[in-house]
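input
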Amino acid sequence: MRSLEVITLCPIGIVASSNDEAKSRALTKPEHGLMLVAEAQTKGRGSNQRNWISETGNLYASLMLYPEIPHAQAQDFVKMAGLAVMDVLKGQGLKPKLKAPNDVLVEGKKICGILVETVTKGKVPPSVIIGIGLNVASHPDIPEYPTTSLHLYSALSLAEVTAFLAESLRLRYESWRLNGFGPMEKEYNAACN
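output
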């Protein structure tokens, strides 16, 4: 399993989808620890191809990893990313919860969604793309699904949130690499209750 000494932030402006950009790069220029950060997305998506409203001011990031693991283990990274987002929110005095498999909630309202995808080239183990959409400056009005955003609770800037999240993801990844997923599995399950 490859170590992750640093996560490099790479602004990519307005794109269709940060995950699609990362998947494309994974086939041509693999970069372990590169996090693409979009200003906005025109075709953002969540799980099951659901539309993800992606206005400027929120965080849309896709972290590219090459952990050298079997394809079947890739979805563990959804849980790892959820815990990393929780770390950032807890740092602001919030009490977030996880909603399996890929949502982060604050006061019962969705603040973040996570989409993990893989790219396999030949017999090479898959690259893992962790897509994170975090409502920072605003949140969409979805009548059937309450949402919220970080600005209602914190004065952190988007740049600060992005930097904190990158470091939290790095620390969580290194914990997984050194200790396996067992300890985080317990933490994840507790955060879902």
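quick obs: The chain has one domain: 8-191.
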